[in-house]
Amino acid sequence: MNLALRDIRYHRGRFILTSIGLGLLLGVVMSMGGIYRGLFADALAVLNSTKADLWVVQQDTNGPFAENSRIPEDIRYRIAAVPGVAAAAPLSFETLQIDRQGKPFRFFLIGYDLNGFGGPPAIIAGRSIRQKHYEMVVAKAMKMALGEKIHLGLHDYTVVGITGKIVSASGDPAAYVSLADAQEIQFQKDNDAIRNDRERIGANLSEIQILTPAQAGYLKQNVASIAETTHIVNTVVARLAPGADLGEVQERIGRWNHFRAISSDEQATILTMGMIQKAKMQLGLFRIILLVISAVIISLIIYTSTLDKIRVIATLKLIGSQNRVIVGMILQQSLLMGVIAYAVGWILISLTYEHFPRRIVLEPFDLQALFVIVIAICTISSLVGIRKALKVEPAEALGG
Amino acid sequence: MYAIEVERLTKIYGKGETAVTALSDATFQVRPGELVAILGPSGSGKTTLLTAIGLINEPTHGRLAIGGATIADEGWLRGLDLKKIRRERLGFIFQSHNLIPFLTAQENVMVALEINEVGRAEAKKRAGELLTALNLGHRLHNYPSALSGGECQRVAIARAIANRPQVILADEPTAALDTENGKNVMGLLKKLAVENHSAILVVTHDHRMVEGFDRIFQVSDGRIVGETGNAGSA
To answer: What is the ipTM of this complex?
Structure first.
């Protein structure tokens, strides 16, 4: 006869409620693991969707995701000409926060060459950008409808397509516009700033005595046009030809002044190790704390449940029950509680993970590892109750 | 052959100046089928004697034999499996029935059988038969909380006799019952002693129930101070 199951059957209300409570806690542990994996997935989403082998960025910087990188757009042609490079495409990245329907609305704007690569990976509704200006494709997470307009910089942009789950390393949903639009949004100065810059350049040039007014005027025009240019990008990405040596191409570009070539793997390391390391540690710590709390709760529940059964245990011992019967009763209850709580947590997280504001990635390995940990915790937690039970004297069954 | 043999059985708690003699030189025998009472006030040593015979409390001195086999002689004999002896040869009835609250009446009897390696189907059959014989056939699937005090004590008796033990030890079995239920339980114990040929030793201070016993030992200050009844030796 399985005494553990009989006890659970009799106290099913209490047992189910306890297991649900514990299940909620385990659900949070699972979600923490999912958030951790989601951070990785988010951090690498743009990187992976671009499918580039090399990221050419400003010298002494860690690339467009980690810090500010500005390089001239036309470097793409020089990169494309490097032996081993099959294609090169400029990309622009910017995190924007605007007011939308009276609420702050944050997203990650990606500008790409419509004839190059690095654009939205898959269109799930509408179409991709066909016009050079004022069209955009947004991630589904932006919750914008096709045809909806949004004001960015100096112009209104119309949503023409919806793409899947593409977010920035910080979890902001991505929006795609043409490179020219992105450059204008990011680098176009307003009219007052342009006027001020021109005046300042003019004033500085007028102090140079050796220049004639005509020369100064010509110089002013050229300097201003350089200062006002928007033909700047954050990175140029490159895909290598089949059989090309990545290290060789990287080294060749690295020898140029003012540029750094980062491989896709290095970029992934910068993103994961640098940008989400603290978040990883934080989440890991939370998971450990929650697991310790779960262990303490299970121990307390099993211990108090054992205390409730002291007379039962004493009676069983008195009528000659083997210790394994008593140990089995406590251990099985503890394990069953863990299994039910795990199932509750898993069902809960499976039903809700898509509604979390940040991406939750439930990896089978993580879930299996957590199951093993829960079983280990239940086994260890039951030891407290088992120790108490084994100390019970049969004589305690006697008396009133 | 005696079911219980107790010879100069002594139990001393503590050592040196703090030593307390709870039981001193108890000597008696109980035959199979006999219903014997140990009568005495609280603290007289009744329960100490019961726990020593029940193999729960190791006697300090003296000899104890169950069913002719010596169990203790100046302490437990080495190599004995006391739990096995308890479950095979002894049955216990408690003051407050001590039924397992999360088992039905039938399961409470079955548990004693299954602990003694009786198969599940056989245990279920025997438990059902026993309870039916004790007029509890309609209560097989009820939990103890749904049974009256008298019914609970009858289930406890069924559990105690389930393995057909040579000795049944009862600790104040009527203390929690009214007079009528108490007399019913005593009548049942008497019947079982005769039918099953078991020696039944009842510890009680309930003078209302002394009528049905074959012999009564009076215990005071840890000593057997008197014996009344039809036969026996002290």
So the answer is: 0.81
